[in-house]
Amino acid sequence: MSAQSKKRTVVENGDGGIDMALAASIANSEDLGPIIRHTFETGKPEALLHHLRNIVKKKEVEIEELCKLHYEEFILAVDELRGVLVDADELKGMLSTENFRLQEVASDLLLKIEELLELYSIKKNVTEATQTLKICIQVSNLCITCNRHVSEGRFYPALKTLDLIEKDYLHSIPMKAFRKVIEKQIPTMKLYIEKKVCSEFNNWLVHIRSTARQIGQLAIGQAAAARQRDEEMRARQREAEEQSRSVVSDCVYTLHTENSDEDSVLEFDLTPVYRAYHIHTCLGIGEKFREYYYKNRLMQLNLDLQISTAQPFLESHQPFFAQIAGFFIVEDRVLRTAGGLLLESQVETIWETAIGKMTSILEEQFARMDTASHLLLIKDFVTLLGATLTRYGYRVTSLLEILDNSRDKYHDLLLSECRKQVNDILTNDPLEQMVIKKEYEYNMNVLAFHLQSSDILPAFPYVAPFSSSVPDVCRIVRSFIEDSFSYLSYGGIMNFYDVVKKYLDKLLIEVLNDSLLTLIHNSNSGVSQAMQVAANITVLERACDLFLLQAAQLCGIPRRLIERPHSGLTAKAVLKASQNVAYNSLLNLVNSKLDECTTLMNSINWTTDETSEHGNDYINEVLLFLESLISAARQILPLEALYKVGICALTHMCDSIVGAFLSESVKRFNLNAVMGIDNDLKMLESFADERFYSSGLSELRKDTSFRDCLVEARQLINLLVSNQPENFMNPVIREKNYGALDYKKVAAICDKFKDSPDRLFGSLSNRNTKQDARKKSMDVLKRRLRDFS
């Protein structure tokens, strides 16, 4: 029964219940605490004590009754107990005896046991000492191994050994002093290894900066070799295209294979970098080394980006750019192979820094340059630099933009140099036909520029239709095309044929054409020199097609594209116009020379009594000049130009003859003078016919021949020697026989015409019927002309 139920029982039954509850709890060996606590709480301890005494008395009565009931058995038990006591005494005596005997026997054994225990203690100490020594020896051996690795420069095995000591042996070393020594030396060794690899890395930094230029030069050299192979391939393709155009049926396809080292790997040692980074990573300070590497390499780059002021940029640009190329080739290799030492963003950052500095340097240096070849040399190396770094994944657009922005400046410098060269050539040109004595000279000056008039090799010495300035100018133009192509190629422009064509037009128009016009307008040369200038311009105008073809071939443009309509050079039309200017200048000089020759007409006796059968003196001079003029023009001018020169010269002679009759110095003339002029005119007409047909001008199918240029003078002479000059006023006859004559000129000339020589009584002595009829007809013509006017 629980304490709570007991409490309730006591409360319910009062004092009698407490007595029974106490008796029951004592009989059951239960705890009396709750009952006692309840009694004291109710303030009745005396009653409890009374009840307990009653219970004790009841128990004593029960014991007495029980003893009385079992008294005999109790006595027997006591007797037996006494017997057992006797037996126990005997047994005790026996045990004492046996113990004494045992003590005697075991005393020796105890001594042995003590010795054995002592030996066991010694063994234990020896074992512990052996274990301690074994651990110490192992640790010592590991320390020796670590020292050997460090001395041999094998830092990673040394670190692995230190880690092994620290993790597996250090806490198990029983010798505290030895353990403290090891604990102190481990950080020292790690610091030593860190310093050692840092020292090696610093040496590598110095070494790689000194070899970066060589690395860059080798890489740029590979890019140059690759470019050369590309150019040779394009040249073979152009040659194959030309052959396929000329011989379509015999096409031969070949595959050219070459062993190249374009993809060969640039060899440079990054072992110190790998080892330093790996060691720092093993030491748990990899981030520290990454920052150290980046900081030092950035410092080196900033040093590399400083150009030398001790020498011109033209001399220092190649080492400068090679150094930068080598730097970024190394960085690319580190980025790809160093396992996270460099981040791609870090490489991009330093590349942006470098390219920004390079572009500013190029802009500044290009602005200072005044020589096209210097600018081209630097541009060419910069494009090689761009091609090299592009292979390693760097963006070089900014560099190419700088080159493109300097395109106009380069061509302006190039045009300026070409202008000076052309002016020097034209100034020193003797303006005489070029005499070529050897075949190699012919190949170099004629065939090289397709200036030949025939594919048949001429006999030597060969007199070319142009002067020495033409092939020299062609060489300048060809060099300009090559230089322009060299600058524009491998840059940011993809289709640069149009750009080359634009600058070629600019050269031919603003340089060559302007120089030729200056030569034409400022020259004080004679007819032969002016004719040579016109012939040269004709050849140069034809050479424009060759220049355009050269540009197209260099740019890889098929020939069929440049042969399309409206695809030629504007300069061709401009040179054509300048050719007309040269022809006009030539014609003016020809007319001036003819005027000099016709000044001899002032010595003609216009009232002579006799007719000159051999012509007047001036006509011989005129014919000699015209003969040399036509012969020279026939050699160097095209038929069209020859025709134009002949037509102009003979027309001018016709005007000079008619003008002589109209001259104020001629007051009157007679029939004999007219007959002399008629003989002169016949000589001119004979010359005109012979030269017109012998020169092949008849093949031009022109409406006007050389003789036709003299028709005004011929009709005037025919009118003056006609028996019926009054027929001039007949429209039908005039249209048929005198259509080239002007009324006013005829009237003025006829007023000066006197049918008889001017001598005393001449009109009475020699007059005959025929003369009278002519005179009357002339008088009628004069009168009718006066009436008409």
Protein architecture, described:
- There is one protein chain.
- The chain has helices at residues 3-27, 33-42, 45-69, 71-151, 155-169, 176-246, 271-282, 286-304, 313-337, 344-368, 372-391, 397-405, 407-428, 439-445, 469-488, 497-522, 527-555, 559-562, 570-598, 617-636, 639-662, 671-694, 711-721, 731-737, 743-752, 762-765, 769-788; strands at residues 435-436, 462-463.
- The chain is an all-alpha fold and 789 residues long.
- Among the domains are: 175-235 and 267-394, no CATH class; 408-586, Exocyst complex subunit Sec15 C-terminal domain, N-terminal subdomain (Tetracycline Repressor, domain 2), CATH 1.10.357.30; 604-756 and 771-787.
- The longest helix has 81 residues, at 71-151.
- The N and C termini lie far apart (179 Å).
- Mean pLDDT is 83; it is low at 1-14, 246-263 and 757-767.
The topology string of helices and strands comes to HHHHHHHHHHHHHEHEHHHHHHHHHHHHH
Shape: rod-shaped
Which residues form runs of ≥5 with pLDDT under 50? 1-14, 246-263, 757-767
- The overall strand count is 2
Distance N to C terminus: 179 Å
Radius of gyration over C-alpha positions, nearest whole angstrom? 66 Å
Quote the average pLDDT.
Answer: 83
Largest sheet: 2 strands, antiparallel
The amount of helix comes to over 70%
Lateral arrangement of strands in the main beta sheet: 1-2
Subcellular location: Cytoplasm, Cytosol
Organism: Ananas comosus (Pineapple)
Domain Exocyst complex component EXOC6/Sec15 N-terminal: 51-220
Domain Exocyst complex subunit EXOC6/Sec15 C-terminal: 398-752
